[in-house]
What does this fold into?
Amino acid sequence: APFQWAAIFHKEDINFTHGHHDLGWYDSSEKTCKHKLPCKVSCAFCRTPIMDEGRNMILLFPTLINFKSEEDRKNFEPTCHMFYNRRVVDIPDGKPKWTGLNDKSDLIEDSPPELKKRKRAENADA
It folds into this structure.
């Protein structure tokens, strides 16, 4: 897929209000449906992918969230682009664009100039 809208956050920041009984797991390394981290999490009935669960983090697909308001939805708007050097289409939106993981790789393309300067300064100090 050319795009993936994903929200990445710490596991302690998520709470399933109706429990985990309707969730299914899949561990691709052992090809098992046991809950073994890291794993893929999906609906146990229709198998729609919901998120990836790691040891400390969650990668959630915001399109599956029923937001109560437009303000709540804005909390999940993209803040940066990761692995931008592998893109299939340019996204000239002025958001930071990283060659890999954010804050752990190089800023490229039309990233905000102040972020590029900060990153160069950090690299010079290292």
Q: What stands out?
A: The longest strand covers residues 39-43. The CA atoms of residues 67 and 74 lie 10 Å apart. Strands lie at 7-10, 23-26, 39-43, 49-53, 57-60. The helical segments are 70-74, 113-125.
